[in-house]
Amino acid sequence: MSESGKRNPKQAAEGQRATSTARPILEPVRVVARD
After folding, report:
1. What is the Cα gyration radius of the chain?
2. Where is this region: Disordered (predicted)?
3. In 3-state terms, the chain is what percent helix, strand and coil (to 5)?
4. Per residue in 1-35, pLDDT tens?
5. Cα–Cα distance between 32 and 8 in angstroms, integer?
């Protein structure tokens, strides 16, 4: 992951944003699945 980040920092930033965006969506799903 760090290698592609060095090659294309813009793409790495987009990937980070997607990860932080997906995290809050997945966490509540985990809680619901637990119930």
Report:
1. 14
2. 1-35
3. 90, 0, 10
4. 556 546 777 877 776 776 666 566 667 776 676 65
5. 37
Look up residue 16 and give its two tokens: 């980070």
Q: How many domains does the chain have?
A: 1
Question: What is the rounded distance in angstroms from the CA atom of residue 10 to the CA atom of residue 8?
Answer: 5
Question: What sign does the CA torsion over 8, 13, 18, 20 have?
Answer: positive
Q: Which domain holds residue 29?
A: 2-34
* Tokens found for residue 10: 């813009």
